[in-house]
Amino acid sequence: MCTVCGCGDTHEHKHEKNHVHFGEGEAGVSVPGMSQSRLIQVEADILGKNKIFAERNRQYLTERGVLALNLVSSPGSGKTTLLVETLERLKGEVPVAVVEGDQQTSNDADRIRATGAPAVQINTGKGCHLDAHMVGHALEKLLLDEGGVLFVENVGNLVCPSAFDLGEAFRVVILSVTEGEDKPLKYPDIFASADVMVLNKTDLLPHLDFSVDDAIANAKRINRTIRVLQVSARTGEGMQDWLDWLRSALASQVTGTSHGQVAE
Q1: Rounded distance, CA 186 to CA 231, Å?
Q2: CATH for 36-258?
Q3: For residue 181, pLDDT beyond 70
Q4: Which listed residue, of 38, 178, 185, 236, carries a Cα 20 to 30 Å from 44's Cα?
């Protein structure tokens, strides 16, 4: 597979003359005035520091038997609606808490708190993702009950969050059927790093020209081990499968089971 754009044959492929690509270098990105080696060093420094904070978060959560999920998606995928419905259904079953990430406003955190779940809002300003240091500060403000679930709702963005480990046990990418089936191919890093893909808003399928099979095939092309769940947070279709996966993931956290051994 071509490392530049994902097409099939590395040797025979030639980019069209009107194809301009700024991700061809070693760093995978281009910044005016910075060499590829300098870009790699800057990224390594940033991600190295983030990794330290992420491991601190992970240790803190693991010691308490708390399952942490990093929810990532593009804006408008229904991420918050799915989370609200999940919290309502888990009410009284397991302790829950939420870290809510947005550039501005506390609108989503207010929706979360309306369910009775504790939530800390992180506003990133111009920042397009959460990092482990931000989440660590939020954890200081949350009283996490042992054996519970922490949902981290990341800033709506399919690019930058892919590079930042927050200390989560699992990464869940939400793709709505109102988006294109080719999203996994356009934004491969986030799907490659995810453990689960929730295909959301399935109640809208009769009104859309969207191929579920193609979307799943594209996700599997990027990440052959990704678990796919089809859900409608509005009608409740598929919610039981999502909750069953959550319960299995929580059990794996408590017992120290590896990710690959979570029940299918």
Answers
A1: 22
A2: 3.40.50.300
A3: yes
A4: 185
